[in-house]
């Protein structure tokens, strides 16, 4: 498998868990504006090696998810801002341009220090 993307979780916003019930995780680089940080999973390094495509695999902790839809600006926003929304709903069409959709299954637990990776088979 080829690694497309890797980052590490540096902080968890005080209210990021509010989005878990909606099967969403909002990623943002750890230099996110203060008013957004409390809702986000913040991460450090941000190296996108290739554009993310449907069929790639997202891995958080030990959980793997097949990517089912890629919003129009996901690759640009991730590369430039480290900011996208992960949605674990199985949708095959991205309703929002900044959303990355994964297969609908159990949400991952997420903690400071976790690695988030995207692979291509």
TrEMBL record:
InterPro entries found in the cross-reference section: PTS_IIA_glucitol/sorbitol-sp, PTS_IIA_glucitol/sorbitol_sf
One MF annotation (Gene Ontology) recorded for this entry: kinase activity
Annotated protein name in UniProt: PTS sorbitol transporter subunit IIA
A GO biological process held by the record: phosphoenolpyruvate-dependent sugar phosphotransferase system
Modification Phosphohistidine, positions: 43
PANTHER family documented for this protein: PTS SYSTEM GLUCITOL/SORBITOL-SPECIFIC EIIA COMPONENT (PTHR40398), PTS SYSTEM GLUCITOL_SORBITOL-SPECIFIC EIIA COMPONENT (PTHR40398:SF1)
Provenance organism: Orenia metallireducens
PROSITE patterns from the UniProt entry: PTS_EIIA_TYPE_5
Superkingdom of origin organism: Bacteria
Coiled-coil positions: none
GO CC annotations, alphabetized: cytoplasm
């Amino acid at each position: 498998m080829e690694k497309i993307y890797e980052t590490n979780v540096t902080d968890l916003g005080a209210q990021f868990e509010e989005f878990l019930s909606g099967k969403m995780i909002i990623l943002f680089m750890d230099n996110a504006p203060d008013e957004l940080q409390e809702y986000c999973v913040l991460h450090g390094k941000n190296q996108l090696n290739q554009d993310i495509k449907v069929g790639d695999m997202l891995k958080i902790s030990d959980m793997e998810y097949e990517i089912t839809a890629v919003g129009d600006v996901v690759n640009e926003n991730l590369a430039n801002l480290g900011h996208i929304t992960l949605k674990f709903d199985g949708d095959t069409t991205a309703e929002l341009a900044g959303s990355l959709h994964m297969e609908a299954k159990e949400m991952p637990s997420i903690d400071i220090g976790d690695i988030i990776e995207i692979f291509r088979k």
